[in-house]
Amino acid sequence: MSEKEVLLTGDRPTGRLHIGHYVGSLKNRVALQNSGKYDPYIMIADKQAFTDNARDPEKIHNSLLEVALDYLAVGIDPQKTTIFVQSAIPELSELTEYFLNLVSIARLQRNPTVKTEIQQKGFGESIPAGFFIYPVSQAADIALFKGAVVPAGDDQEPMLEQTRELVRTFNKVYGVDLLKEPVGYFPPKGQGRIPGLDGVKMSKSLGNAIYLGDSSDELWAKVKSMYTDPTHVRVEDPGHIEGNMVFTYLDIFATDQARVDELKQQYQAGGLGDMKLKKELFEVLDTELAPIRDRRATLASDPVAVLNMLKEGSMRARQVGQATMQEVRAAMGIQYWD
Length: 338
Fold this sequence. Notes:
The protein is α/β, with parallel strands linked by helices and 338 residues long.
């Protein structure tokens, strides 16, 4: 492994990635990859996806290629970043098992991210055990590669703290300074969580997301459906910008903020219609997403090449994982022979 600090991050393959992922973490990953300061790894977390999709394996299988295409289309370079598949690294399961002995059920129950997701998914009392312990699996994902920096959305800080606790406990119990405590690398304030078209959390299941591979026609149809100001009935009516998703997106994506400020003034004063405003946003988003869309379409024409890239990346990642597990077993006193 390189002497550079290791970046490690990833996504679950449960569908295409959307612009929330793009702003929340993908742009950071590309910038950090291209800085030359890090040794980046990106994991497609198919095993984690099974924690709440175990009865729909086809969904995960089909999404694997979609997520890989999104990575490559936004500028993740497999010559600079090792892209690998979680299930191809059995050492991750082994380290997860050891970590499970170092954390209590009560601690997992207190994890705010898990508590929120359990409510969102409506598990009730029927929480799959694999889902309940996935923060431990996530900690193993980071620790196996000695990940020092994790580009993530700001909602992932509780998961990172759980990882730091497990790493500290492991190192203390076994008297080593082997695994690293990761820090998060978060998007600029206000850009970590982009709301969906309707103003609530962007989600595949809610159908309120703009995907990186959406065509211009699909993009325009989604922008036209965006929530604005229900009191802005006529063009001449003064409008509100708070909670208006068009302005929320313009603030994030527009490069000409002077133009955005001008639009805000016109809208609040009256005289600017919602459709004209949405056309402004469409032009901004289409300019941003068109190169990604085009690269994605080109890459999708050769799926075998993409799968081979994932295979090669997984082989490289496994070599690193095997080396770390040798050190882990030695620290635990279970390296019984060479």
